Amino acid sequence: MIVRNAWLDGQRVDISVADGHISTIEPATEGEPVTVCPPLAEPHVHLDAALLGRRAPNVSGTLVEGIENWARLRDGLTAEDVRARALETVGWYVGWGCTRIRTHVDPGNLRAVEALITLREELASAEVPVELQVAAFPQEGILRAPGRQAQWVKAVELGCDAVGAIPHFERTTDEGNASLRLALDLAQERGIDVDVHCDETDDPGSRHLEFLCAEAIDRGMGSRIIAGHCTAMHSYPDGYAAKVIELVRLAGLQVVCNPLDNIVLQGRYGGYPKIRGLTRVDELWAAGCSVGIGHDSVMDPWYRLGTANLVDAAYMLVHAGHLTGEAEMQRVFGTLSGANHRAFGGAPAIEVGAPANFLVYPAADPIEVLRLRPKPTLIRG
Ligand SMILES: [Zn+2]
Hints:
The chain is α/β, with parallel strands linked by helices. The protein has helices at 63-74, 79-95, 110-124, 148-157, 173-190, 208-219, 232-235, 238-251, 259-265, 281-286, 310-320, 326-336, 366-372; strands at residues 2-8, 11-18, 21-27, 34-37, 40-45, 98-105, 131-136, 162-165, 193-198, 225-229, 254-257, 290-293, 357-361, 377-380. It is globular and about 65 Å long.
């Protein structure tokens, strides 16, 4: 099999596949131009809540009502229900070329945690294998929600891949930082990752990321930590943002931006002008930090839209993040099949001798992929 006239890392090439492996990569000859890249990776979604938006419509469209609606639905969810919705959503992801997914799951319902951990094993040996990672994410706080700390520990013991926290949602700054310390301790004890919803608020006084970075530096854990959202950074004074971004770089943790949710869930206080509420992707990049891009919600209580196509999240980011320069758009698209793989050990290589495992988009280059957002074909050996 030969994929002709493919954009690959800025070159136009013909790629031939034989016996499940890439046998040659040569300068392009002819044919309709296409774009080739590794399969996409999703660093941040909530499969336990996916597709629930219809059951509990978010009347105000706000983050707070989303959390309330979720809390109401969560306790009644059965393992079968969680499994069915997760499977359907994962199927959509695969259809859009994504074969690695890190899902958060709320330990407030341990049946949901078990359902997703069981699904993780099943998906690993599916026809198109999907690598699922599960992060124990206490939506209403570890310390704030009565009884949640024990459930959160139990969820991690059931076999989660990452420990979550939500420091800005705890009652005080001190309790938020204490929750981070608990999460880092638990992750170290279990030898697993940390994945925090960090400062997902418009409050410029929400400064847990600096604490997380300091702890990551002291514990040497940065490579195993993701800080999701970090939207308060949007509203930080520039001088403070520069300090925190330098700490992110020193700590070596990854910030995951979730543009679809945050463009509508943030900026809800006060009148005009409205802030955008996305973390500072351009400044993080300029400082040399690792940034991932998540879809976050697929038709859930927080965000009623969503298709499980990560290119939609990238499309939103290039607009709302002012990243429409040529190189910036290329980098945003490249993140989906590049930096997004960080938690999974890095993206699979597209090189001679490697197992065939890549996407072919019917579009001439990454900017055309962003513009048209077409379905890719997954080529697997
Ligand atoms: Zn989230």
